[in-house]
Amino acid sequence: MAKQLNAEQKTISQVFMECKKAFLIPEYQRPYSWERDECHTLWDNLYEFAFPNDTISDFDADEDNYFMGTILTFKNDSKEHEVIDGQQRIVTFMLLFRAFYKAFNSAQDESIKNVRRKIEQCIWKTDEDEKPEKENPKLNYEVISDEDSDELKKILATGNYTPKNKSNYAVNYRLFQRWIFDLNSAKPGYLLYFARRILNNCVLLPIEADSQNTALRIFTTLNDRGRPLDDADIFKAQFYKFYLKKGSVAKNKFVERWKDLTELCNKNFHPRKDTPVDDLFRRYMYYLLAKNEVKNDTFPDMRDYYEKNSYEVLQSNETFEDLITLANFWDDVATRNEERFSPRVLRRLYVLSWAPYNIWAYAVSIYFMGNRVIDDEKFYNFLNKITAMLLMYAITNPGVQAIRRPFFIEFQNILHGRPLEFKQFKQDRRILRERMTNTNFSNQRAVTGAMLMWWTFRDDKQELPPLGVDLQIEHILARKRQELHHVLDNPAALEFLGNKALLEKGINIRAADYRLVDKKIYYLGDGKKPATFNLELRGLAQTYDDFTEEDILARNEKIFDAFINYLREQDLLI
Protein backbone atom coordinates (compact mmCIF):
# COMPACT_ATOMS: atom_id res chain seq x y z
CA MET A 1 0.00 0.00 0.00
CA ALA A 2 1.35 3.45 -0.94
CA LYS A 3 2.36 5.76 1.89
CA GLN A 4 -0.39 8.32 2.27
CA LEU A 5 0.84 10.61 5.07
CA ASN A 6 3.73 11.46 7.33
CA ALA A 7 3.18 13.00 10.78
CA GLU A 8 5.65 13.76 13.55
CA GLN A 9 5.31 16.36 16.30
CA LYS A 10 7.93 19.13 15.95
CA THR A 11 8.80 22.46 17.49
CA ILE A 12 7.71 25.57 15.60
CA SER A 13 11.31 26.39 14.71
CA GLN A 14 11.83 22.87 13.31
CA VAL A 15 8.68 23.09 11.18
CA PHE A 16 9.69 26.40 9.60
CA MET A 17 13.44 25.85 9.40
CA GLU A 18 13.11 22.39 7.82
CA CYS A 19 10.85 23.78 5.11
CA LYS A 20 13.46 24.25 2.39
CA LYS A 21 11.17 25.36 -0.43
CA ALA A 22 8.17 27.27 0.96
CA PHE A 23 4.74 26.92 2.45
CA LEU A 24 2.27 27.63 -0.33
CA ILE A 25 -1.11 29.10 0.57
CA PRO A 26 -2.78 28.15 -2.74
CA GLU A 27 -5.21 30.05 -4.93
CA TYR A 28 -8.26 28.15 -3.71
CA GLN A 29 -7.80 28.91 -0.02
CA ARG A 30 -9.87 31.58 1.67
CA PRO A 31 -8.22 34.89 2.60
CA TYR A 32 -6.39 35.41 5.88
CA SER A 33 -9.06 36.18 8.47
CA TRP A 34 -7.42 36.42 11.90
CA GLU A 35 -8.13 39.73 13.62
CA ARG A 36 -7.24 41.40 16.91
CA ASP A 37 -9.23 38.97 19.10
CA GLU A 38 -7.53 35.86 17.72
CA CYS A 39 -4.08 37.46 17.92
CA HIS A 40 -4.69 38.73 21.45
CA THR A 41 -5.78 35.25 22.56
CA LEU A 42 -2.67 33.74 20.95
CA TRP A 43 -0.38 36.28 22.62
CA ASP A 44 -1.93 35.76 26.06
CA ASN A 45 -1.77 31.98 25.77
CA LEU A 46 1.86 32.07 24.67
CA TYR A 47 2.77 34.44 27.49
CA GLU A 48 1.07 32.30 30.14
CA PHE A 49 2.90 29.24 28.81
CA ALA A 50 6.32 30.95 28.57
CA PHE A 51 6.11 32.60 31.98
CA PRO A 52 4.31 30.38 34.51
CA ASN A 53 3.26 32.41 37.52
CA ASP A 54 4.38 35.49 35.55
CA THR A 55 8.05 34.65 36.16
CA ILE A 56 10.99 33.54 34.03
CA SER A 57 12.30 30.96 36.52
CA ASP A 58 9.32 28.58 36.75
CA PHE A 59 9.72 27.36 33.15
CA ASP A 60 11.39 23.99 32.40
CA ALA A 61 12.91 24.25 28.93
CA ASP A 62 13.54 20.49 28.77
CA GLU A 63 10.03 19.38 29.73
CA ASP A 64 7.50 22.13 29.04
CA ASN A 65 5.73 22.02 25.67
CA TYR A 66 2.70 23.82 24.30
CA PHE A 67 0.77 22.14 21.48
CA MET A 68 -0.37 24.64 18.84
CA GLY A 69 -2.34 22.31 16.57
CA THR A 70 -1.81 20.68 13.19
CA ILE A 71 -0.59 21.87 9.81
CA LEU A 72 -1.83 19.71 6.95
CA THR A 73 0.09 19.89 3.67
CA PHE A 74 1.14 17.93 0.62
CA LYS A 75 4.11 18.44 -1.67
CA ASN A 76 2.93 19.77 -5.01
CA ASP A 77 4.70 19.45 -8.36
CA SER A 78 6.98 22.38 -7.43
CA LYS A 79 7.95 20.61 -4.17
CA GLU A 80 6.29 23.36 -2.14
CA HIS A 81 4.34 22.44 0.97
CA GLU A 82 0.83 23.26 -0.26
CA VAL A 83 -1.26 24.09 2.80
CA ILE A 84 -4.71 22.54 3.19
CA ASP A 85 -5.15 23.33 6.89
CA GLY A 86 -3.18 25.67 9.13
CA GLN A 87 -2.81 28.71 6.93
CA GLN A 88 -4.10 31.08 9.64
CA ARG A 89 -1.47 29.84 12.12
CA ILE A 90 1.33 29.88 9.55
CA VAL A 91 0.65 33.44 8.43
CA THR A 92 0.19 34.67 12.00
CA PHE A 93 3.46 33.13 13.18
CA MET A 94 5.24 34.65 10.20
CA LEU A 95 3.96 38.08 11.26
CA LEU A 96 4.95 37.44 14.87
CA PHE A 97 8.43 36.24 13.87
CA ARG A 98 8.89 39.32 11.68
CA ALA A 99 7.93 41.57 14.59
CA PHE A 100 10.45 39.78 16.86
CA TYR A 101 13.12 40.04 14.17
CA LYS A 102 12.68 43.79 13.83
CA ALA A 103 12.70 44.24 17.62
CA PHE A 104 16.02 42.38 17.80
CA ASN A 105 17.50 44.27 14.84
CA SER A 106 20.09 46.33 16.71
CA ALA A 107 20.84 43.91 19.53
CA GLN A 108 24.50 43.11 20.27
CA ASP A 109 23.91 40.38 22.84
CA GLU A 110 25.07 37.03 21.42
CA SER A 111 22.02 35.15 22.82
CA ILE A 112 19.68 37.54 21.05
CA LYS A 113 21.73 37.25 17.85
CA ASN A 114 21.36 33.45 17.98
CA VAL A 115 17.58 33.73 18.32
CA ARG A 116 17.53 36.29 15.52
CA ARG A 117 19.44 33.90 13.22
CA LYS A 118 16.96 31.16 14.01
CA ILE A 119 14.06 33.51 13.19
CA GLU A 120 15.79 34.34 9.89
CA GLN A 121 15.77 30.69 8.94
CA CYS A 122 12.07 30.46 9.84
CA ILE A 123 11.03 33.43 7.70
CA TRP A 124 13.38 33.31 4.71
CA LYS A 125 15.37 30.97 2.60
CA THR A 126 19.10 31.34 3.18
CA ASP A 127 22.11 31.28 0.90
CA GLU A 128 25.23 29.10 1.24
CA ASP A 129 26.56 31.40 3.95
CA GLU A 130 23.26 31.10 5.80
CA LYS A 131 22.43 34.72 5.12
CA PRO A 132 18.72 35.43 4.67
CA GLU A 133 17.38 36.00 1.16
CA LYS A 134 14.75 38.53 2.13
CA GLU A 135 13.26 38.50 -1.35
CA ASN A 136 12.54 34.76 -0.86
CA PRO A 137 10.25 34.22 2.15
CA LYS A 138 9.26 30.68 3.10
CA LEU A 139 5.66 31.68 2.48
CA ASN A 140 4.20 31.83 -0.99
CA TYR A 141 0.74 33.36 -0.73
CA GLU A 142 -1.42 33.02 -3.86
CA VAL A 143 -5.03 33.27 -2.63
CA ILE A 144 -7.04 34.63 -5.56
CA SER A 145 -9.62 36.57 -3.60
CA ASP A 146 -7.20 38.32 -1.22
CA GLU A 147 -6.58 41.86 -2.43
CA ASP A 148 -4.18 42.67 0.45
CA SER A 149 -1.60 39.94 -0.07
CA ASP A 150 0.99 42.42 -1.36
CA GLU A 151 0.98 43.99 2.11
CA LEU A 152 1.99 40.62 3.60
CA LYS A 153 4.89 40.36 1.15
CA LYS A 154 6.01 43.90 1.99
CA ILE A 155 5.95 43.23 5.74
CA LEU A 156 7.96 40.01 5.43
CA ALA A 157 10.53 41.60 3.12
CA THR A 158 11.05 44.95 4.86
CA GLY A 159 9.43 44.82 8.28
CA ASN A 160 7.41 47.90 7.29
CA TYR A 161 3.77 48.38 6.36
CA THR A 162 1.67 51.01 4.67
CA PRO A 163 0.43 53.23 7.54
CA LYS A 164 -3.05 53.68 6.07
CA ASN A 165 -3.47 50.00 5.24
CA LYS A 166 -6.28 48.34 7.23
CA SER A 167 -5.60 44.77 6.12
CA ASN A 168 -5.48 42.03 8.73
CA TYR A 169 -1.77 41.65 7.94
CA ALA A 170 -0.95 45.26 8.73
CA VAL A 171 -3.25 45.47 11.76
CA ASN A 172 -1.96 42.24 13.33
CA TYR A 173 1.67 43.09 12.62
CA ARG A 174 1.24 46.49 14.32
CA LEU A 175 -0.36 44.76 17.31
CA PHE A 176 2.55 42.34 17.69
CA GLN A 177 5.02 45.21 17.44
CA ARG A 178 3.19 47.16 20.14
CA TRP A 179 2.89 44.18 22.48
CA ILE A 180 6.58 43.37 22.01
CA PHE A 181 7.51 46.98 22.81
CA ASP A 182 5.24 47.01 25.88
CA LEU A 183 6.70 43.72 27.17
CA ASN A 184 10.25 44.86 26.64
CA SER A 185 9.54 48.15 28.41
CA ALA A 186 7.68 46.64 31.36
CA LYS A 187 9.91 43.60 31.87
CA PRO A 188 13.38 43.99 30.36
CA GLY A 189 14.98 40.66 29.54
CA TYR A 190 11.69 38.81 29.11
CA LEU A 191 11.54 39.30 25.35
CA LEU A 192 14.50 37.03 24.57
CA TYR A 193 13.05 34.21 26.67
CA PHE A 194 9.62 34.75 25.12
CA ALA A 195 10.90 34.38 21.56
CA ARG A 196 13.15 31.44 22.45
CA ARG A 197 10.40 29.52 24.25
CA ILE A 198 7.97 30.04 21.38
CA LEU A 199 10.55 28.76 18.89
CA ASN A 200 11.84 25.83 20.94
CA ASN A 201 8.95 24.70 23.14
CA CYS A 202 5.76 25.41 21.22
CA VAL A 203 5.04 22.41 19.04
CA LEU A 204 2.99 21.67 15.95
CA LEU A 205 1.92 18.44 14.32
CA PRO A 206 2.78 18.84 10.63
CA ILE A 207 0.95 16.21 8.59
CA GLU A 208 2.25 15.70 5.07
CA ALA A 209 -0.09 13.79 2.75
CA ASP A 210 0.90 12.18 -0.53
CA SER A 211 -1.56 14.20 -2.66
CA GLN A 212 -4.05 17.03 -2.59
CA ASN A 213 -6.99 14.65 -2.52
CA THR A 214 -5.57 12.69 0.41
CA ALA A 215 -4.94 15.91 2.31
CA LEU A 216 -8.45 17.20 1.64
CA ARG A 217 -9.99 13.95 2.83
CA ILE A 218 -7.86 13.95 5.98
CA PHE A 219 -8.91 17.52 6.68
CA THR A 220 -12.59 16.69 6.25
CA THR A 221 -12.23 13.70 8.59
CA LEU A 222 -10.17 15.29 11.34
CA ASN A 223 -11.12 18.94 11.36
CA ASP A 224 -13.90 20.01 13.67
CA ARG A 225 -12.99 23.70 13.83
CA GLY A 226 -13.00 25.15 10.36
CA ARG A 227 -15.11 24.69 7.29
CA PRO A 228 -13.56 22.31 4.76
CA LEU A 229 -12.68 23.58 1.31
CA ASP A 230 -15.49 23.43 -1.19
CA ASP A 231 -15.02 21.56 -4.45
CA ALA A 232 -15.58 24.88 -6.22
CA ASP A 233 -12.54 26.36 -4.42
CA ILE A 234 -10.36 23.69 -5.99
CA PHE A 235 -11.96 24.04 -9.42
CA LYS A 236 -11.63 27.83 -9.36
CA ALA A 237 -7.91 27.47 -8.75
CA GLN A 238 -7.53 25.22 -11.80
CA PHE A 239 -9.32 27.73 -14.01
CA TYR A 240 -7.22 30.50 -12.51
CA LYS A 241 -3.99 28.70 -13.42
CA PHE A 242 -5.29 28.13 -16.95
CA TYR A 243 -6.15 31.77 -17.53
CA LEU A 244 -3.00 33.00 -15.79
CA LYS A 245 -0.98 31.32 -18.54
CA LYS A 246 -2.88 33.44 -21.07
CA GLY A 247 -1.73 36.68 -19.46
CA SER A 248 -2.91 39.25 -16.94
CA VAL A 249 -5.80 40.49 -19.08
CA ALA A 250 -7.29 36.99 -19.40
CA LYS A 251 -6.63 36.31 -15.72
CA ASN A 252 -8.29 39.53 -14.54
CA LYS A 253 -11.27 38.95 -16.81
CA PHE A 254 -11.66 35.43 -15.40
CA VAL A 255 -11.60 36.73 -11.81
CA GLU A 256 -14.41 39.19 -12.60
CA ARG A 257 -16.49 36.62 -14.48
CA TRP A 258 -16.02 34.06 -11.71
CA LYS A 259 -17.36 36.59 -9.24
CA ASP A 260 -20.43 37.13 -11.45
CA LEU A 261 -20.87 33.38 -11.83
CA THR A 262 -20.72 32.90 -8.07
CA GLU A 263 -23.35 35.58 -7.49
CA LEU A 264 -25.59 33.96 -10.10
CA CYS A 265 -25.29 30.56 -8.43
CA ASN A 266 -25.84 31.96 -4.94
CA LYS A 267 -29.04 33.60 -6.16
CA ASN A 268 -30.52 30.56 -7.89
CA PHE A 269 -29.16 27.34 -6.40
CA HIS A 270 -30.05 26.14 -2.91
CA PRO A 271 -28.65 22.62 -2.52
CA ARG A 272 -29.03 20.71 0.73
CA LYS A 273 -25.34 19.77 1.01
CA ASP A 274 -23.16 21.40 -1.64
CA THR A 275 -22.47 25.08 -2.08
CA PRO A 276 -24.37 26.79 -4.92
CA VAL A 277 -21.28 26.80 -7.18
CA ASP A 278 -20.65 23.14 -6.36
CA ASP A 279 -24.21 22.47 -7.48
CA LEU A 280 -23.52 24.05 -10.87
CA PHE A 281 -20.44 21.88 -11.33
CA ARG A 282 -22.46 18.80 -10.39
CA ARG A 283 -25.14 19.61 -12.99
CA TYR A 284 -22.44 20.10 -15.57
CA MET A 285 -20.76 16.82 -14.57
CA TYR A 286 -23.93 14.92 -15.43
CA TYR A 287 -23.89 16.54 -18.86
CA LEU A 288 -20.28 15.44 -19.36
CA LEU A 289 -21.14 11.91 -18.24
CA ALA A 290 -23.90 11.80 -20.83
CA LYS A 291 -21.75 13.41 -23.51
CA ASN A 292 -18.93 10.93 -22.95
CA GLU A 293 -21.39 8.01 -22.86
CA VAL A 294 -20.23 6.79 -19.48
CA LYS A 295 -21.57 3.27 -19.00
CA ASN A 296 -21.15 2.87 -15.24
CA ASP A 297 -24.17 4.15 -13.33
CA THR A 298 -22.20 4.33 -10.06
CA PHE A 299 -21.31 7.98 -10.40
CA PRO A 300 -17.91 9.16 -9.15
CA ASP A 301 -17.25 11.63 -6.40
CA MET A 302 -17.37 15.03 -8.09
CA ARG A 303 -13.86 16.05 -7.06
CA ASP A 304 -12.51 12.72 -8.29
CA TYR A 305 -14.28 13.22 -11.61
CA TYR A 306 -12.90 16.67 -12.32
CA GLU A 307 -9.44 15.76 -11.00
CA LYS A 308 -8.89 13.15 -13.73
CA ASN A 309 -5.85 13.74 -15.95
CA SER A 310 -4.68 16.69 -13.83
CA TYR A 311 -8.03 18.49 -14.08
CA GLU A 312 -7.94 18.30 -17.86
CA VAL A 313 -11.60 19.25 -18.31
CA LEU A 314 -11.01 22.48 -16.35
CA GLN A 315 -8.04 23.48 -18.49
CA SER A 316 -10.42 24.73 -21.12
CA ASN A 317 -12.10 27.98 -22.08
CA GLU A 318 -14.99 25.95 -23.52
CA THR A 319 -15.73 24.43 -20.12
CA PHE A 320 -15.86 27.81 -18.39
CA GLU A 321 -18.10 29.23 -21.12
CA ASP A 322 -20.35 26.17 -20.81
CA LEU A 323 -20.68 26.71 -17.07
CA ILE A 324 -21.70 30.33 -17.62
CA THR A 325 -24.20 29.27 -20.28
CA LEU A 326 -25.70 26.66 -17.96
CA ALA A 327 -25.88 29.11 -15.05
CA ASN A 328 -27.68 31.64 -17.25
CA PHE A 329 -30.16 29.00 -18.33
CA TRP A 330 -31.01 28.25 -14.70
CA ASP A 331 -31.25 31.97 -14.00
CA ASP A 332 -33.91 32.18 -16.71
CA VAL A 333 -35.71 29.27 -15.05
CA ALA A 334 -35.57 30.97 -11.65
CA THR A 335 -36.68 34.35 -12.95
CA ARG A 336 -39.35 32.80 -15.23
CA ASN A 337 -38.05 34.32 -18.42
CA GLU A 338 -41.12 34.37 -20.66
CA GLU A 339 -39.02 35.22 -23.70
CA ARG A 340 -37.30 31.89 -23.32
CA PHE A 341 -40.06 29.66 -21.94
CA SER A 342 -43.77 29.33 -22.59
CA PRO A 343 -46.18 29.61 -19.62
CA ARG A 344 -46.87 25.86 -19.67
CA VAL A 345 -43.13 25.06 -19.59
CA LEU A 346 -42.64 27.46 -16.68
CA ARG A 347 -45.42 25.73 -14.79
CA ARG A 348 -43.82 22.32 -15.39
CA LEU A 349 -40.43 23.61 -14.20
CA TYR A 350 -42.04 25.05 -11.09
CA VAL A 351 -43.68 21.73 -10.29
CA LEU A 352 -40.33 20.00 -10.72
CA SER A 353 -38.71 22.43 -8.29
CA TRP A 354 -40.68 20.56 -5.61
CA ALA A 355 -39.48 17.14 -6.78
CA PRO A 356 -38.14 14.79 -4.07
CA TYR A 357 -34.84 14.18 -5.87
CA ASN A 358 -32.45 16.58 -7.59
CA ILE A 359 -31.94 14.19 -10.50
CA TRP A 360 -34.54 16.23 -12.38
CA ALA A 361 -32.16 19.24 -12.39
CA TYR A 362 -29.35 17.08 -13.76
CA ALA A 363 -31.65 15.69 -16.45
CA VAL A 364 -32.83 19.18 -17.46
CA SER A 365 -29.20 20.37 -17.55
CA ILE A 366 -28.27 17.49 -19.86
CA TYR A 367 -31.26 18.25 -22.06
CA PHE A 368 -30.40 21.94 -22.34
CA MET A 369 -26.67 21.48 -22.88
CA GLY A 370 -27.34 18.88 -25.55
CA ASN A 371 -29.90 20.95 -27.42
CA ARG A 372 -29.23 24.63 -26.53
CA VAL A 373 -32.06 25.88 -28.75
CA ILE A 374 -35.12 24.33 -27.13
CA ASP A 375 -38.24 23.24 -28.98
CA ASP A 376 -41.19 24.14 -26.73
CA GLU A 377 -43.32 21.11 -27.55
CA LYS A 378 -40.50 18.59 -27.12
CA PHE A 379 -39.29 20.25 -23.93
CA TYR A 380 -42.80 20.33 -22.47
CA ASN A 381 -43.27 16.62 -23.21
CA PHE A 382 -39.86 15.86 -21.71
CA LEU A 383 -40.72 17.73 -18.50
CA ASN A 384 -44.02 15.89 -18.18
CA LYS A 385 -42.29 12.56 -18.61
CA ILE A 386 -39.65 13.14 -15.95
CA THR A 387 -42.25 14.62 -13.59
CA ALA A 388 -44.36 11.49 -13.88
CA MET A 389 -41.35 9.20 -13.46
CA LEU A 390 -40.03 11.03 -10.42
CA LEU A 391 -43.37 11.09 -8.61
CA MET A 392 -44.12 7.47 -9.43
CA TYR A 393 -40.73 6.27 -8.18
CA ALA A 394 -40.98 8.42 -5.07
CA ILE A 395 -44.01 6.28 -4.18
CA THR A 396 -42.97 2.85 -5.47
CA ASN A 397 -39.16 2.90 -5.14
CA PRO A 398 -38.21 5.73 -2.77
CA GLY A 399 -34.53 6.58 -2.48
CA VAL A 400 -31.87 8.47 -4.41
CA GLN A 401 -30.08 5.35 -5.62
CA ALA A 402 -33.28 3.81 -6.99
CA ILE A 403 -34.16 6.82 -9.15
CA ARG A 404 -30.68 7.20 -10.62
CA ARG A 405 -30.73 4.09 -12.79
CA PRO A 406 -33.88 4.86 -14.83
CA PHE A 407 -32.49 8.29 -15.69
CA PHE A 408 -28.99 7.00 -16.38
CA ILE A 409 -30.31 4.60 -18.99
CA GLU A 410 -32.07 7.50 -20.70
CA PHE A 411 -28.99 9.78 -20.77
CA GLN A 412 -28.50 9.55 -24.52
CA ASN A 413 -32.17 10.20 -25.25
CA ILE A 414 -32.09 13.18 -22.88
CA LEU A 415 -28.90 14.55 -24.43
CA HIS A 416 -30.25 14.39 -27.95
CA GLY A 417 -33.79 15.54 -27.19
CA ARG A 418 -35.40 12.24 -28.08
CA PRO A 419 -38.57 10.94 -26.37
CA LEU A 420 -37.88 9.10 -23.12
CA GLU A 421 -39.06 5.51 -22.75
CA PHE A 422 -38.22 4.13 -19.27
CA LYS A 423 -39.09 0.70 -20.70
CA GLN A 424 -37.70 -1.37 -17.84
CA PHE A 425 -39.29 0.72 -15.13
CA LYS A 426 -43.00 0.82 -15.85
CA GLN A 427 -45.30 -0.07 -12.96
CA ASP A 428 -48.35 -2.27 -12.61
CA ARG A 429 -51.42 -0.04 -12.14
CA ARG A 430 -53.02 -2.13 -9.41
CA ILE A 431 -49.80 -2.47 -7.41
CA LEU A 432 -49.16 1.25 -7.78
CA ARG A 433 -52.65 2.11 -6.56
CA GLU A 434 -52.13 -0.09 -3.52
CA ARG A 435 -48.79 1.57 -2.80
CA MET A 436 -50.39 4.99 -3.03
CA THR A 437 -53.10 3.96 -0.59
CA ASN A 438 -50.49 2.71 1.89
CA THR A 439 -48.10 5.65 1.51
CA ASN A 440 -47.80 7.97 4.47
CA PHE A 441 -48.15 11.45 2.98
CA SER A 442 -46.90 13.31 6.03
CA ASN A 443 -45.87 16.94 5.70
CA GLN A 444 -42.26 15.98 6.41
CA ARG A 445 -41.95 13.81 3.30
CA ALA A 446 -40.86 15.59 0.12
CA VAL A 447 -43.20 13.46 -2.00
CA THR A 448 -46.21 15.03 -0.26
CA GLY A 449 -45.44 18.58 -1.36
CA ALA A 450 -44.43 17.32 -4.82
CA MET A 451 -47.72 15.48 -5.34
CA LEU A 452 -49.72 18.48 -4.16
CA MET A 453 -47.79 20.75 -6.49
CA TRP A 454 -48.45 18.43 -9.43
CA TRP A 455 -52.15 18.29 -8.47
CA THR A 456 -52.42 22.07 -8.16
CA PHE A 457 -51.03 22.65 -11.64
CA ARG A 458 -53.16 20.07 -13.41
CA ASP A 459 -55.48 23.00 -13.98
CA ASP A 460 -54.20 24.84 -17.07
CA LYS A 461 -55.72 28.04 -15.70
CA GLN A 462 -53.66 27.84 -12.52
CA GLU A 463 -51.13 30.66 -12.49
CA LEU A 464 -47.78 30.60 -10.76
CA PRO A 465 -47.53 32.33 -7.39
CA PRO A 466 -45.45 35.52 -7.39
CA LEU A 467 -41.69 35.07 -7.23
CA GLY A 468 -40.44 34.67 -3.69
CA VAL A 469 -43.72 33.48 -2.21
CA ASP A 470 -43.26 30.77 0.40
CA LEU A 471 -45.82 27.97 0.09
CA GLN A 472 -46.74 25.59 2.88
CA ILE A 473 -48.92 22.50 3.19
CA GLU A 474 -52.38 23.41 4.48
CA HIS A 475 -54.73 20.99 6.24
CA ILE A 476 -58.14 21.90 4.85
CA LEU A 477 -59.78 20.24 7.84
CA ALA A 478 -57.56 21.75 10.51
CA ARG A 479 -55.49 19.53 12.78
CA LYS A 480 -56.55 21.60 15.76
CA ARG A 481 -60.18 20.92 14.99
CA GLN A 482 -59.54 17.18 15.02
CA GLU A 483 -57.53 17.43 18.25
CA LEU A 484 -60.30 19.33 20.04
CA HIS A 485 -63.48 17.88 18.55
CA HIS A 486 -62.54 14.45 17.07
CA VAL A 487 -64.64 15.02 13.95
CA LEU A 488 -63.03 12.16 11.98
CA ASP A 489 -64.03 8.51 12.43
CA ASN A 490 -60.66 7.61 10.90
CA PRO A 491 -58.09 9.99 12.41
CA ALA A 492 -55.54 8.92 9.76
CA ALA A 493 -57.63 10.76 7.15
CA LEU A 494 -56.26 14.01 8.57
CA GLU A 495 -52.97 13.29 6.78
CA PHE A 496 -54.45 12.04 3.50
CA LEU A 497 -53.57 13.99 0.36
CA GLY A 498 -57.29 14.62 0.10
CA ASN A 499 -57.05 16.92 3.13
CA LYS A 500 -54.01 18.85 1.98
CA ALA A 501 -53.28 21.73 -0.36
CA LEU A 502 -50.56 24.28 -0.98
CA LEU A 503 -51.14 27.70 0.50
CA GLU A 504 -49.11 30.86 0.95
CA LYS A 505 -47.33 30.90 4.32
CA GLY A 506 -49.01 34.09 5.51
CA ILE A 507 -52.49 32.83 4.70
CA ASN A 508 -51.71 29.42 6.18
CA ILE A 509 -50.75 31.02 9.49
CA ARG A 510 -53.92 33.11 9.64
CA ALA A 511 -56.25 30.27 8.59
CA ALA A 512 -54.55 27.49 10.56
CA ASP A 513 -57.11 26.37 13.15
CA TYR A 514 -60.48 27.37 11.73
CA ARG A 515 -63.38 25.57 10.13
CA LEU A 516 -63.71 25.94 6.36
CA VAL A 517 -66.56 28.42 6.76
CA ASP A 518 -64.21 30.58 8.81
CA LYS A 519 -61.28 30.09 6.42
CA LYS A 520 -63.18 31.42 3.42
CA ILE A 521 -62.20 35.00 4.09
CA TYR A 522 -58.54 33.99 4.03
CA TYR A 523 -58.80 31.80 0.92
CA LEU A 524 -60.86 34.37 -1.02
CA GLY A 525 -59.31 37.56 0.35
CA ASP A 526 -61.13 40.39 2.02
CA GLY A 527 -60.19 43.39 -0.08
CA LYS A 528 -57.27 44.24 2.20
CA LYS A 529 -55.50 40.89 2.01
CA PRO A 530 -55.21 39.12 -1.36
CA ALA A 531 -56.80 35.75 -2.11
CA THR A 532 -54.68 32.62 -2.34
CA PHE A 533 -53.07 31.84 -5.68
CA ASN A 534 -54.53 28.30 -5.38
CA LEU A 535 -57.56 28.11 -7.67
CA GLU A 536 -58.80 24.87 -6.15
CA LEU A 537 -58.90 26.31 -2.63
CA ARG A 538 -60.74 29.36 -3.88
CA GLY A 539 -63.22 27.02 -5.56
CA LEU A 540 -63.68 25.02 -2.36
CA ALA A 541 -64.31 28.21 -0.42
CA GLN A 542 -67.00 29.23 -2.90
CA THR A 543 -68.66 25.79 -2.87
CA TYR A 544 -68.36 24.39 0.67
CA ASP A 545 -69.18 25.67 4.14
CA ASP A 546 -67.58 22.65 5.75
CA PHE A 547 -65.02 20.06 4.72
CA THR A 548 -65.88 16.65 6.12
CA GLU A 549 -64.32 13.22 6.26
CA GLU A 550 -66.43 12.24 3.28
CA ASP A 551 -65.04 15.19 1.33
CA ILE A 552 -61.49 14.22 2.26
CA LEU A 553 -61.94 10.66 1.03
CA ALA A 554 -63.63 11.77 -2.19
CA ARG A 555 -60.89 14.28 -2.97
CA ASN A 556 -58.22 11.71 -2.09
CA GLU A 557 -59.67 9.26 -4.64
CA LYS A 558 -59.90 12.04 -7.18
CA ILE A 559 -56.20 12.84 -6.79
CA PHE A 560 -55.22 9.17 -7.02
CA ASP A 561 -57.37 8.60 -10.12
CA ALA A 562 -55.93 11.66 -11.82
CA PHE A 563 -52.37 10.59 -11.04
CA ILE A 564 -52.98 7.08 -12.43
CA ASN A 565 -54.38 8.64 -15.60
CA TYR A 566 -51.39 10.96 -15.82
CA LEU A 567 -48.99 8.04 -15.65
CA ARG A 568 -51.04 6.21 -18.28
CA GLU A 569 -50.79 9.26 -20.55
CA GLN A 570 -47.03 9.23 -20.06
CA ASP A 571 -46.89 5.51 -20.92
CA LEU A 572 -45.43 4.49 -17.56
CA LEU A 573 -47.98 1.81 -16.61
CA ILE A 574 -48.34 -1.82 -17.62
Report what the structure shows:
With 574 residues, the protein is α/β, with parallel strands linked by helices. The chain has three domains: 5-222, no CATH class; 231-425, no CATH class; 450-569, no CATH class. 55% of the residues lie in helices and 9% in strands. The protein contains 25 helices and eleven strands. The chain has helices at residues 12-17, 36-50, 87-103, 110-123, 149-158, 168-186, 190-201, 212-222, 231-244, 248-268, 276-291, 302-311, 317-334, 343-352, 359-371, 376-396, 400-409, 411-415, 429-438, 446-456, 479-485, 505-511, 516-524, 535-543, 549-569, and strands at residues 5-7, 10-11, 23-25, 66-75, 81-85, 124-126, 132-137, 139-141, 202-209, 471-475, 500-504. The strands form three sheets. Strands 1, 2, 3, 4, 5, 8 and 9 form a seven-stranded mixed beta sheet that branches. Strand 6 (124-126) and strand 7 form a beta hairpin. Helix 15 (359-371) packs antiparallel against helix 16 (376-396). The longest helix is centred in the middle third of the chain and has 21 residues, at 248-268. The model has no long low-confidence stretch (mean pLDDT 92).
Write the layout of secondary structure elements.
Elements: E1 5-7, E2 10-11, H1 12-17, E3 23-25, H2 36-50, E4 66-75, E5 81-85, H3 87-103, H4 110-123, E6 124-126, E7 132-137, E8 139-141, H5 149-158, H6 168-186, H7 190-201, E9 202-209, H8 212-222, H9 231-244, H10 248-268, H11 276-291, H12 302-311, H13 317-334, H14 343-352, H15 359-371, H16 376-396, H17 400-409, H18 411-415, H19 429-438, H20 446-456, E10 471-475, H21 479-485, E11 500-504, H22 505-511, H23 516-524, H24 535-543, H25 549-569
Parallel strand pairs: 3-5, 3-8, 4-9
Antiparallel strand pairs: 1-9, 2-9, 4-5, 6-7, 10-11
Helix pairs in contact: 3-4, 3-6, 4-7, 9-10, 9-12, 10-11, 10-13, 11-15, 14-16, 15-16, 16-20, 22-23, 23-24
